[in-house]
Design goal:
The chain has 338 residues and is of the alpha/beta class. Helix content is 34%, strand content 16%. The chain is built from 12 helices and 12 strands. It has a 4-stranded parallel β-sheet with strand order 6-5-7-8, with helices on both faces.
Length: 338
């Protein structure tokens, strides 16, 4: 099973890694592309997706007509703020981990001059100077870096936005985490903003392919009852309600969210016991604590070894890796299909 899953994910990741954003050029049909793969390791208690050694592969590419962004570009962000970029951004600061990941995936990482403390993927992001927290980065440091664009997401505060824009710095906040279509639009929007349109189209196409292929494998299978433990114990019982993006990912992976009728994130231990989920998902860093803490340790899913610790960034961070997250969850929910 796990060998088949590895091969499936490997082929998907190679599709997602084909394209780099640079000065547009047309590649011949035999142009070599070097890709890297991620390894999936699944045990009875935990699932971890992590980077492995680079795998060199020559993949034929088609001749493409590359669409160009025309500048000046006036862009209206998720909060209705209009920003006009006079030219293609060359010095970008990312104030959101998913934006940092996306810029790397688009191949524009050479233009990144700043990131936040939480921008930890890929590993190469650590070589870029940090500007501090996601919500309230160091404004003085950002100004000193002389960016022509700051990209941010929902956690970015209005105060930070106002301080930077009042100093004449272009700030675009993109918050599209409501569904997979929204994530697709986010990728295309960033591609337009930094003139990586073709690469953004390729990434969204690869996402759609991986999701549709995953769903084809699990089509018609019984849906297990799933609980995603966002937090538990003294920190309170929180999960993903039916109005959250993570709920949609659970459904896309062929699971039945036991908190489907919940609005928001708040749950209760009593409701969890009553729901009696078949499978429980937690962050890989919370796994040991969850399965060893009473009364969670008495849950049927714990006793049957169906609590899985995952790399939550695959589903928590809205972006191209969510397709990998759906595949990962589908393999946990339906191991017999993989």
């Amino acid at each position: 099973m796990f060998k088949k899953l590895y091969v499936f994910l490997l082929s998907a990741l190679m599709m997602l890694s084909l394209f780099a954003c640079s000065t547009p050029e047309v590649q011949s049909a035999s142009s070599p592309v070097t890709t890297s793969a991620a390894q999936v390791a699944v045990s009875e208690e935990t699932t971890v997706v992590e980077e492995s050694e680079a795998i060199s592969t020559t993949i034929p590419t088609e001749v493409l007509t590359v669409p160009e962004t025309e500048y000046p570009l006036t862009f209206t962000d998720s909060y209705g703020n209009e920003t006009t970029l006079e030219s293609e951004p060359q010095r970008i600061i990312s104030c959101a981990p998913n934006m940092t990941e996306l810029i790397f995936q688009l191949g524009a990482e050479n233009r990144l001059v700043g990131r936040t403390d939480y921008c930890d993927y890929p590993d190469a992001a650590f070589s870029i100077d940090s500007v501090g927290a996601i919500d309230s980065p160091n404004v003085e440091m950002i100004v000193s870096m002389e960016p022509d664009l700051v990209l941010a997401s929902s956690i970015f505060t209005e105060d930070s936005f106002n301080q930077l824009t009042e100093m004449g710095i272009n700030v675009i906040v993109i918050h599209e985490e409501y569904d997979v279509d929204g994530v697709r639009n986010m990728i295309l929007s960033v591609g337009e903003i930094i003139n990586c349109n073709s690469q953004a189209i390729d990434i969204t196409s690869a996402m759609d392919t991986l999701i549709s292929e995953t769903q084809a494998i699990i089509e018609g299978l019984d849906k297990p009852k799933v609980y995603y433990a966002v937090s538990f114990g003294e920190y309170g019982d929180y999960t993903v309600g039916g109005d959250t993006y993570l709920h949609q990912l659970i459904e896309a992976a062929g699971g039945e969210n036991v908190a489907e009728d919940v609005v928001g994130w708040s749950f209760s231990l009593e409701a969890l016991v009553e729901a009696d989920p078949d499978i429980i998902i937690v962050s890989q860093y919370m796994l040991d604590a969850f399965i060893s803490t009473a009364p969670y340790s008495d849950l049927r899913a714990v006793k049957e070894g169906h609590v899985y610790g995952i790399d939550s960034n695959l589903v928590d961070r809205q972006g191209f890796r969510n397709a990998e997250g759906i595949l990962m969850l589908a393999a946990l929910f339906h191991p017999e299909a993989f």
